[in-house]
Design goal:
The protein has 2 helices and 11 strands. The strands form 2 sheets. Strands 1, 4, 5, 6, 7, 10 and 11 form a 7-stranded mixed beta sheet that branches. The termini are far apart.
């Protein structure tokens, strides 16, 4: 559903480099089918993220967007509070330079170093998507273009207990439910329109065969 903001969690490997002070993570992976609450399968397609989308993205802890951001991509990585998001073949890689003189940033770094935090999440909008198998109980959603990418977060809990990089939350959100329902409504409208067009075409054929009567 366009313009709806969605969150997705991943179990991820964080690395905190004590010498450089930098933190690495993988907030987004491509072409990896993922179960969304047992309702549908979702895949973020390669090419869904563009350079324009990652120009100004903030980093938070647990999506606390009312608090101060810990890092931001418009700040160079050489400076404290700087962050980069690099689009690779199979994923988006994050590199962050937190200011450890800030208590929130330092607490996050310590939690990552201790292995307490090992998951990432991101908030995004869907600009273009494709659905398949909407007539089945388990359709497939392909996210073709993401815009905007609001923020990426370190989160306390991975999606599932698994350590897979593509793990998601096991409980569907209301937005996910609405996304699926909207897609099915759109498909039903298209099928109804196609049926009407077919009937009109048949009427024209019969009229022609009867000599225009």
């Amino acid at each position: 559903m366009k313009n709806e903001l969605i969150r997705r969690n991943y179990a991820a490997e964080f690395r905190s480099d004590n010498q450089s002070g930098l933190i690495e993570g993988i907030p987004i992976v491509f072409d990896t089918p993922t179960d969304i609450g047992g309702m549908f399968e979702e895949t973020i397609c390669k090419g869904a993220i563009s350079k324009d989308v990652i120009k100004d993205v903030r980093f938070f802890w647990n999506h606390n967007i009312d608090e101060k951001a810990i890092a931001r991509t418009i700040i160079p990585i050489e400076k404290l509070g700087g962050m980069t998001l690099e689009i690779e073949d199979k994923q988006v890689k994050m590199l962050m330079n937190p200011n450890r003189e800030r208590s929130d940033a330092n607490d996050l770094c310590l939690a990552i170093e201790d292995g307490v935090i090992n998951a990432m999440s991101f908030m995004f909008g869907v600009e273009e998507e494709r659905w398949e198998d909407l007539d089945t109980e388990y359709p497939k959603r392909f996210i073709i273009k993401i815009s905007p990418l609001i923020e990426v977060s370190a989160v306390n809990f991975p999606a599932y207990a698994s350590t897979s990089i593509n793990a998601r939350r096991d409980l569907p959100t209301e937005i996910d439910k609405c996304v699926l329902e909207k897609a099915r409504q759109n498909r039903a409208s298209v099928k109804e329109s196609n049926t009407k067009n077919s009937l009109e075409l048949e009427k024209l054929k019969i009229k022609y065969l009867l000599g225009g009567k």
